[in-house]
Design a protein that fits this description.
Helices cover 44% and strands 13% of the residues. The protein is of the alpha/beta class and 291 residues long. It folds into two domains: 175 residues, Vaccinia Virus protein VP39 (Rossmann fold); 80 residues, DNA polymerase, domain 1 (Orthogonal Bundle).
């Protein structure tokens, strides 16, 4: 089956995690298996591999692509980590890629992108009730402004203006309606003026930052000694959480649970950006379990 997704920073992930034959592997955001398939080509250890994703479409794809002895969990990564910790599972490698997958962006009816006209959805797990339409049409003007400023990192004045306009034009039911409204109230820029608002809404719909905050402390507990972890982020809010966690976990000298592998985040090389422009904002941070 043709791969539906180009994994970002693939060569950098492979170099950082440095997989070896028979090692165990946990992919917290397996998506369509781009990173996992390359790592498993080296380890050949399917029975000690766990692939996690909360998107049912991704999970169905993974079940077709990987042998039946590979454990595949259809839930959010925090719930999966708790489940694995309670079972006493540990791994030689852990990877988390916090970006939205290309199939989610490209599938119009998912409502993640303003490039196609679709219902305001944005749910990674379509079993949950909360949608982007709920956020846009039911939140107060003050709450919308807070969301855009905090999670979209929009200037406060612009966040308030956009929130006011959205409330005035409600109901807004499609991605095109929302994007066109934002564009009509914006000056020209190379970045589409709706980008940050869509990011902010998606983060809230999927509770993304809370998931990351709760999950990070579980990483050392799920790593074997000398185990490696790689985390890919796509915006400064995520990267700051990971950076601060790694710094705190590596600051206790010989008693530190983790040792940082790369002091600065690794970004995509130009050759990758030509093939996969969505990698332009990706940052990879790596750490190793000390004790």
């Amino acid at each position: 089956m043709e791969k539906p997704h180009i994994p970002v920073l693939l060569s950098e992930v492979l170099a950082g995690l440095n997989p070896k034959p028979n090692e165990s592997y946990l992919d917290l955001t397996a998506g369509f298996g781009g990173h996992a398939s390359e790592i498993l080509d080296v380890t050949q250890n399917y029975k000690d591999t766990v692939l996690v994703d909360r998107d049912e479409f991704a999970v169905n794809y993974l079940k077709q692509e990987f042998p039946p002895e590979t454990e595949i969990i259809n839930t959010d990564f925090y719930s999966a980590m708790l489940q694995l910790f309670e079972c006493g599972k540990t791994f030689d490698m852990i990877l988390a890629d916090f970006g939205v997958s290309s199939p989610q962006l490209d599938n119009g009816d998912r409502g993640f992108s303003f490039k196609t006209d679709a219902p305001l959805d944005m749910r990674m797990d379509r079993k949950q009730k909360l949608t982007a339409a709920d956020i846009v049409n039911k939140s107060s003007e003050r709450e919308l402004a807070r969301i855009f400023a905090l999670y979209g990192e929009e200037p406060v004045g612009r966040a308030k203006m956009l929130a006011r306009e959205i409330v005035h034009h409600r109901p807004i039911n499609t991605t095109r309606e929302l994007a066109d409204l934002i564009k009509s109230k914006s000056r020209y820029s190379k970045l589409h003026p709706a980008t940050k608002v869509f990011q902010a809404i998606r983060i809230v719909v999927n509770d993304e930052l809370t998931q990351i905050e709760k999950s990070l402390p579980l990483i050392p507990k799920l790593l074997n000694k000398n185990g490696r972890v790689g985390i890919i982020t796509f915006h400064s809010l995520e990267d700051r959480l990971v950076k601060d966690f790694f710094k705190a976990e590596s600051s206790l000298g010989e008693e530190s649970p983790l040792e940082i592998i790369n002091k600065k985040p690794i970004t995509a090389k130009q050759v990758e950006l030509v093939i996969n422009p969505r990698a332009r904002s990706a940052k990879l941070r790596l750490a190793k379990k000390r004790i």
